[in-house]
């Protein structure tokens, strides 16, 4: 599955957000299976209204959303790259995630201490990014030393790695994150394997005050500006409100959201933003037993999409019977889609599209 790491300075609302994400009534209901793997790791159902509609048409007994994993990575402070706070251990945790949700304190509250004694989310973002850049520099220098002998011996992979590490180092020493390096197609795989912290996509989470979760405030406006200039995205959330909503039953939560003037829970927006950040898409399998959502990377071919369900589906792939989501709804299900000629037989070269309802045929 895909993993999103929640990072940020102390006291910005990371734990509050993580608790809200993993403790929601919805997350615990049968429809949104949830489990905590470790205290700071939570598996969250990805909300998708389409799945409910498909299940209603097919009369599916069970609805199983696709999931995303959140990891609460506390302990990142100024000096972390030099081993301050819980330092390197946390940097190692970040290495393992696919993307970073960077929580920024945008709320004013005299009762909650700010580590720097002032609310300035743009400066906070720079503090954390600087630590990540320093950590990258250190790890690059170590790795280059480790490569010296192999490079001298003419090892092709080592030569490629060294070249990429040098490209990254040049950018980092210039005070920029490694994600600005333009990587050639042929180098992409090796580049990803370097697992540099500052190549991970970032989603800024503006934690605003309770009354500001619709439009944000002056702090979140500055974060929005910064995010846009970096090509990163941002969401506005009040972690405290989300935690309150997470305690409510579904119908109560809907009423509460209406009262607040919110169309949907901020957590749903956050999860979806993470999905977009990672260029993920969803396809569905629908039957009387269950309606289920599956996650793929954009641009995945049918056999590899089938492989998400089971490796054998990919190995023995014959073809996929496919109905686009809109057709499935318009034709009121599989039978209607078939009759209308909307069910397609697709082969190995088919690029699965977001919302496709798939049925795989395979050899065992
Ligand atoms: P962490 O150190 O980043 O995990 O921060 P916590 O989630 O533990 O939050 C630190 C403190 O800030 C706690 O006392 C929270 O109740 C409080 N807090 C978190 N989010 C908000 C918010 O949106 N508004 C206000 N006023 N306080 C918040």
Automatic annotation (TrEMBL):
Q: Which GO terms describe its molecular function?
A: ATP binding; ATP hydrolysis activity; GTP binding; metal ion binding; ribosomal large subunit binding
Establish whether keyword Nucleotide-binding is in the entry.
Answer: yes
Q: Which domain of life is it from?
A: Bacteria
Query: What's a Pfam family in this record?
Result: MMR_HSR1
Q: Which GO terms describe its cellular component?
A: cytoplasm
Keyword Protein biosynthesis belongs to the record: no
Which sites bind ATP?
11-16
| Keyword tags | ATP-binding, Magnesium, Metal-binding, Nucleotide-binding
Domain OBG-type G positions: 2-257
Q: Which family does it belong to?
A: Belongs to the TRAFAC class OBG-HflX-like GTPase superfamily. OBG GTPase family. YchF/OLA1 subfamily.
Q: What does this protein do?
A: ATPase that binds to both the 70S ribosome and the 50S ribosomal subunit in a nucleotide-independent manner.
Please give the HAMAP family that the UniProt record associates with this protein: YchF_OLA1_ATPase
- Please report the name of this protein according to its UniProt entry: Ribosome-binding ATPase YchF
Q: Which organism is it from?
A: Shimia thalassica
């Amino acid at each position: 599955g895909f993993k999103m790491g929640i990072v940020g300075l102390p006291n910005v609302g990371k734990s509050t957000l993580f608790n809200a994400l993993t403790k929601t009534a919805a997350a615990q209901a049968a429809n949104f299976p949830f489990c905590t793997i470790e205290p700071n790791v939570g598996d969250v159902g990805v909300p998708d209204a389409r799945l409910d509609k498909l299940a209603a048409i097919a009369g599916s007994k069970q609805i199983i959303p696709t999931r995303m994993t959140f990891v609460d990575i506390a302990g990142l402070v100024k000096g972390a790259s030099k081993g301050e706070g819980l330092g390197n251990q946390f940097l190692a945790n970040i290495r393992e995630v696919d993307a970073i949700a960077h929580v920024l304190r945008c709320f004013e509250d005299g009762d909650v201490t700010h580590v720097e004694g002032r609310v300035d989310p743009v400066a906070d973002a720079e503090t954390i990014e600087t630590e990540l850049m320093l950590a990258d520099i250190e790890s690059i220098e170590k790795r280059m030393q480790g490569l010296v002998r192999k490079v001298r011996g003419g090892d092709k992979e080592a030569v490629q790695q060294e070249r990429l590490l040098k490209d990254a180092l040049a950018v980092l020493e210039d005070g920029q994150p490694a994600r600005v390096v333009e990587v050639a197609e042929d180098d992409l795989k090796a580049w990803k394997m370097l697992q540099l912290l500052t190549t991970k996509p970032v989603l800024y989470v503006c934690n605003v005050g309770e009354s500001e979760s619709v439009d944000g405030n002056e702090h979140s406006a500055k974060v929005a500006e910064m995010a846009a200039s970096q090509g990163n995205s941002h969401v506005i959330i009040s972690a405290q409100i989300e935690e309150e909503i997470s305690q409510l039953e579904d119908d109560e939560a809907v009423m509460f959201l209406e009262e607040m003037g919110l169309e949907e829970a901020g957590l749903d927006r956050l999860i979806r933003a993470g999905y977009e950040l990672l260029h993920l898409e969803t396809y569905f399998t629908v039957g009387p037993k269950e309606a289920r959502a599956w996650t793929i990377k954009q641009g995945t071919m049918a056999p590899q999409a089938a492989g998400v369900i089971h490796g054998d589906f990919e190995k023995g792939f014959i073809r996929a019977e496919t109905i686009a989501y809109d057709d499935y709804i318009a034709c009121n299900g599989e039978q209607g889609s078939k009759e209308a000629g909307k069910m397609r037989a697709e082969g190995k070269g088919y690029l699965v599209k977001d919302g496709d309802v798939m049925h795989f045929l395979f050899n065992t």
